[in-house]
Amino acid sequence: MQRRAMVIRVKPDRLDEYKALHAKPFAGVLAALKAANVSNYSIFLKDDILFAYLEYSGSDWDADMARVAADPETQRWWQLTDPCQTPWPTAHQGDWWSDMECVFYMA
Prior knowledge:
single chain, alpha+beta, Alpha-Beta Plaits, five-stranded antiparallel sheet, 4 helices
C-alpha cells in the first residue's frame, strides 16, 4: 500500500462552490477511484491550499489513474472542479495536483 499526498490551490472566489461540490460527490467518480485501488481519500483545506491524502493498493499507479481519467463521469466532475483550482506555483508543466514527498511517517 502506498500513501500519497498532493497539493493544489483553490481560487478564493470559488471556495464555496468547491466545498458544495465535495459535499455531494458524484457516485461514479467515487466508484472509479475505488476501482482504481484508491481508498482513505481525504482533502483538507487551509486558507487557499488544498491538501489531499489517499492510500493506493494497486501495482500500477499510472495505468489506474489513466483509467480514472478516461471515465466519463470523472471527466464531467473535473469540468466542474478544475475551474475552482489553480496548480501549485512549482507544478511541472501539465501537472494539476502536485505530488508531495513523505518525509516522516509513524505507524
